[in-house]
Amino acid sequence: MRSVHIEVVKQTCFFVREKVLKNVVELTIFNEGEGFKATLTVSTPSATHKIPLGYIDAGRRIYRVHIPDIRKEVSVKFSVHDESGNTVAERNVKWKPRRHWIIYLVQYSHHDLGYTDIPQNVLREYIDFYDSIIQFCEETEDWPEETKFRYQVEQFWSINYYLKTQPKHKVDRLLKLLKEGRIEISALFGNEVSGLCGHEEII
What we know:
Elements: E1 4-18, E2 20-31, E3 36-43, E4 48-56, E5 59-68, E6 74-81, E7 87-95, H1 119-139, E8 151-153, H2 157-165, H3 168-180, E9 183-185, H4 199-202
Parallel strand pairs: 8-9
Antiparallel strand pairs: 1-2, 2-5, 3-4, 3-6, 6-7
Helix pairs in contact: 1-2, 1-3
């Protein structure tokens, strides 16, 4: 007889999409005997799912599995089976559906004048930088709306230099993206370094 225990079933806030949405679950399993190849069965009142667990080592280990997203508060049974199909460990868990989060990633610029280089050199570097931003926007033009590349410019200082120094065809491409809202500019001309500000600027 094997002596195996499912000590903890931990729901995480993470999901993966493998044809269907699946919740990432961490199982803490303590195996007091020799290692063996195992399968996990996850049983709900309406469905049963079999998931390969791989090799269960001797001792206490955490195994991460992906189970189909369960959207109701139900009792869920986790069962571990050995190579012969024998049930060697079970644990019942009161399941609470995890919240689905939408995370928005926004890339933006940050100018620390004098930190990375002197202002004149930073301005020249940002010409190539904005060329790349325009390129990324244009390359994703036919992508779904929510996946198109967008960019938030922290201040107007470097954009102003770009508009004044670059050829018309490059400026027109930038202005088009600004009008479309793919590139946005904050209402700030340049960053202020508090150590160089007088009382009026700080207030």
